[in-house]
Structures are given as C-alpha cells and as structure tokens.
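Standup notes
- DV: blocked on the single-chain target, sequence here:
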Amino acid sequence: MESPVVVEVAINGGTFPDRNPNVPLTPEHIQSDVFGLLDAGASMIHTHTYDINLQGQAAADAYLEAWRPILEERPDTVWYPTLSVDQSVGAKGESVEGRFAHYPIIAAEVPMPIGIVDPGSVNLGYPDEDGLPTGFSYVNTFDDIKYAFNLCDEHRFGPSLAIYEPTFLQTVLTYHRAGRLPQGSMVKFYFGDEWGMFAKGSGVSFGLPPNASSLEAYLDMLDGVDLPWSVSVWGGDLLKWPVARMALERGGHLHIGIEDHFDPERTPTNLELFEETKALCDEVGRPIATGDQTRKILDLPGT
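- DV (later): unblocked, structure below
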C-alpha cells in the first residue's frame, strides 16, 4: 500500500471553455497549468493543442510553442501529446502516417518519453434530439495499430495504451504474448460515465461503466501480465466512483484532468482535481510518484 501512485493529468483534450472555462488552451495557460501541477507533485501530463486538426509540422509547432519553455525549465517532465485528427475526412484522419507525423518532429526538438497507441475501434457519440446515439466511429485498424507500436519502438516512446473497451485489451495481450509490446507500455482503462466522451448530453456512453465489477473484469483479463495500469472516468468524476479507491488498493494508478472530467454542477481547475486526488491517495496511504519514480514504474526507455 506504500508503493507510489502515478497520477496523470490530461489537462485539456476535447474540452472547450463552454464545457469548462478553466481549460488551458493557449500556450501561456498551458504553461501556467503545467508548472502549477508539477509544483504540486503531478506525475505525468497529457496534452492537446488548441486545434487537433493540425498535422505534421503545423501540429509540432503548436506543441513546441507551448512546451518548449516548460521542458527548458523541467526537462525531466513525463509528458506526451495526442494524435492528430482531420475531422473534415472523419475521425480516422487522412492516414495513420499523418496522425503521427508530428511525433518525430517534436521528439527531435525536446524530450518526449511517451507515445500513444489506441489498440482498437469504438463508436463514440452523444444523444441526438430524440435521445438516440449519434456521433462517429473512432477507427484504428490492425495495420494502424502495428504502425503505432513500430513508431514507439523506433523512437523509444513508452506506449500509452488507451483501453476504451475490452477488445482493445485483447489486442494488447496478443502483442504481449508475442513479445512485441515496446518498453514502457502502460495500460489505461477508460470507463464511460453517463455524459460520455463529449458531455453533449447524458445517456450515451461507451465501454464499461466505472464500477467495481468492470474493473475486476479488466484485471481478470490482465491476470499474470506484469504491466502498470491506471483508471479514468470520462464524462463524470473519477473520485465519485469506487474504481478510484479500488485501483489504489489494488496497486493501480490514476488518470484525471479536465479532458476526462465532467460535472454539470462544477467546473474545477486541473490543480483542484489533482489536490482532490492527492487527498484520496493520502487517505489510502500511497504517496504520489515523483517524475523519476514514474519513469521507473513505467520502465520508460532510457530510465
């Protein structure tokens, strides 16, 4: 129970000021938020730019504008950007190469220890005027997934493995059995609360609900596989659900932040969410991991 817990903060994502006015989108606001979180003890930061449609050099420039000053002062920060998505041609984007084109550019300029692999496909949506599901299919083919894993291997990124639903984990386990998971892999269980991924209305979500039996199902699948794992709740508040404490008690880690969080009655800052999470970690008796401890827990390349 005394083992350090990695607390990852997803600071912005697809959240905009109409959903939470505290979301950091400008470089200056991102820098202020990140420095505050690092000073408070956050273990890892996940970030988007103001425009997820940017690809290649344009996306890299947007990330570097925000992150170069942070990494000049805190070069050991454990952080990673998201993938590019050209929404004009659908959620899959123009090509898997285009979605990742900014990664090598950023990594050539500043330290970047983590990459993303979304190992599956899922319908993501919100209720239409009749209360029925609408939205889009987030598609990652097996070839796309192989490309992402190979990119992480080539550039020595520790893969952040987002598990939207159980089939995603099945794919991860297949790579694990084949000995093909890159060093630094971390499994992240995404649970869907009532407001779903986009918080445009309640009642349309994805994946498994954030309850104890759902986490038990994932841990049963992961039995005998020594990979670090975390829990998050999308379209809700992680700390209101038993999976948060249960994860801490079972040796897991926590993924929080304005990207995931939604509560129609409050709009907290990332720092407020972190401090609330820290209080739970203190209550359970697990200290929050430092940056160096996080690198060792994840076994990131170069650690």
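- Follow-up: The domain at 7-298 is CATH 3.20.20.70 (TIM Barrel).
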